[in-house]
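B., you asked whether I could sanity-check this one before it goes into the benchmark set. Here's the sequence:
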Amino acid sequence: MSAAGGNENGAMNDDVTWMPPEKVEDLYAKAGGNRFASNNRPTSGARSDVALPRGDSQVQLYSLSTPNGIKVSILLEELGVDYDAHKISIMNGEQFHSGFVSVNPNSKIPAAIDMDGPDGQPIHLFESAAIMTYFADKYNRYNFSSNGRARQEMMQWIYFQMANQGPMTGNFGHFFVYAPEDKFETREYGTARYGMEVQRICDVMDKHMEGKTYFVNEEYSLADMALFPWFDQLRKGYVHKCGISAAAFLSVDRYANLNTWADMLLQREAVQRGTQVCSWAHEDTKPWLKVVPVPST
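And here's what the prediction gave me:
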């Protein structure tokens, strides 16, 4: 089928071989075959009537150890806030349970409930950066509340993370690891397109960190906590089944400033704990709290 295209005289070209169907619905079947296909629908809302688990703490966190989830758990650990962590299995569709949707209508992790909201009443929280800003402002830490210039710079990096680093890295990971096996040209196009953009984003960050310890004002802040997990995902995650890793494929070791910064952050105990909260690999949502029984003698 020829696509709609024109030359300089407005005549139709015959050498363009793809054109969209009348409706996107005609293409839905072609998106099948990826690991998350069963979750993909064009509509929102609950798909099953299941209540959220609740603990006794003031803060209830509903998450998984993806980069977006790790952002929030690192902050909560840094703040020393008492919170209950509940793992949400996105592979099993638990983000579409009615209880979760009541907290986050967008059905994405992380989400949280603060039982002591601004008016003393519970408040539902969603979107990782919004959750982080809420708690940092509530406890007045890591937020440059008394430095307007630094606060603005911090927010710019957080928005950069939400609009650029996270989505582009996630898109790269989808095509590199999760897209349908038989979509060769599609996978190569997507991997090249988003891989190149991820490299550009890393270059932006790496150049900014030249001669710096932290992203803003030489002080540890929300900006560092937000940017770290997605960069660390490139260093350690997204491994193709053939064994090629994102780190090798994208030459992540070239970003010396970022690697030095990330290694430094990983020395923080709160960061180490935050990366383990609601881990895919552990049944316990805070595995460092698990008491290992001592065998009796």
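One thing to flag: The radius of gyration is 22 Å. Otherwise nothing jumped out at me.
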